[in-house]
Fold this sequence. Notes:
The protein is α/β, with parallel strands linked by helices. 31% of the residues lie in helices and 22% in strands. It has three domains: 3-37 and 76-111 and 266-336, 3-Layer(bba) Sandwich (FAD/NAD(P)-binding domain); 121-263 and 353-403, FAD/NAD(P)-binding domain, CATH 3.50.50; 424-457, no CATH class. The longest helix is centred in the first third of the chain and has 20 residues, at 131-150.
Amino acid sequence: xxxxxxxxxxxxxxxxxxxxxxxxxxxxxxxxxxxxxxxxxxxxxxxxxxxxxxxxxxxxxxxxxxxxxxxxxxxxxxxxxxxxxxxxxxxxxxxxxxxxxxxxxxxxxxxxxxxxxxxxxxxxxxxxxxxxxxxxxxxxxxxxxxxxxxxxxxxxxxxxxxxxxxxxxxxxxxxxxxxxxxxxxxxxxxxxxxxxxxxxxxxxxxxxxxxxxxxxxxxxxxxxxxxxxxxxxxxxxxxxxxxxxxxxxxxxxxxxxxxxxxxxxxxxxxxxxxxxxxxxxxxxxxxxxxxxxxxxxxxxxxxxxxxxxxxxxxxxxxxxxxxxxxxxxxxxxxxxxxxxxxxxxxxxxxxxxxxxxxxxxxxxxxxxxxxxxxxxxxxxxxxxxxxxxxxxxxxxxxxxxxxxxxxxxxxxxxxxxxxxxxxxxxxxxxxxxxxxxxxxxxxxxxxxxxxxxxxxxxxxxxxx
Length: 464
């Protein structure tokens, strides 16, 4: 008898469960199916460096088929679950539906950006959760430098050279630090913009940043960023966003055309369709083995699950916890079908690093703290070692090593991956390769986030 094992989600949690199941289950003993919306695993800890041009974007993604050899990869979403029949409904990207039976179901759809009802947020801000977000922010940053260098309007230049980040967790702080570092390097090529100067603002609702790490390291990170001229406003919230301003709770109206929303994550709302018990934060309730309460044969881990933390409370939604939960889930599924012994998750993280730009970081291993270049090198080396796939790892290391002596590339690649309509009108603005208004096909215009909105907003000053 071959067991049917279905895994929902191909991030750190889901992909690593599949990898470990391939190792612990004999061939022909199980049919493994992984459902994900894309065919790659995004290495999110290196996303800020992809945005800042320190790493090539292709080096922070690994094709799932490159690391999974016995797992059937299906692109789409699971939008229904029949617990009695023990089957899920897969909806492909082309709209077809299919019922997939399971004996064991693993829920690992991950998380999404936490959204708050701030006026203008969805229309004028961008998140930092996907590779598309990272590439868009890099292109947008370069574009603001180009336009600020070209204009003689001091008010417009102020808006273009002011960047507001909301949220002081890992994602927000690392993205801010990397992009500010990148912009500071790039400024040497923009003399008029350099004379005006940039303004970078971090807005954090709590009274500290980086709640995931020790206060000492968080304070060091704040001191480092403030030393670089970054304005960090703690105990402050975002009240409103317009096309040209961001209003914060102190009453200050900040002129800006860049608002980046990184105010935390929440479990994927698709979990509500599975009929499993959820906690007050929308995470699946599981025990130490990551089995779902009162649901035999259903498991959950990663950002979507409230996995008990050996240190108390629930595990934080980090990649380092997800990759260590995965082998435990795989071992417990194997034990449930008669192979091996069950395990309990007991990982106690004793290391943490925060990148603060090129050659800068802060970190702690046990009782020892590290700062500056040494911390940066240690963090980067660790992340390089954890990239899935030997060939992908080697390419990233080679690219990183070769780029060390050189400055970062400031080429804008905004049109890559978004072809325009085949029409002579495509070149009506002097042969620009950038799609202009009316140039994008419908599929390109409904991209989530601010990219489509920014491309369709008519403004003669923003045409190459």
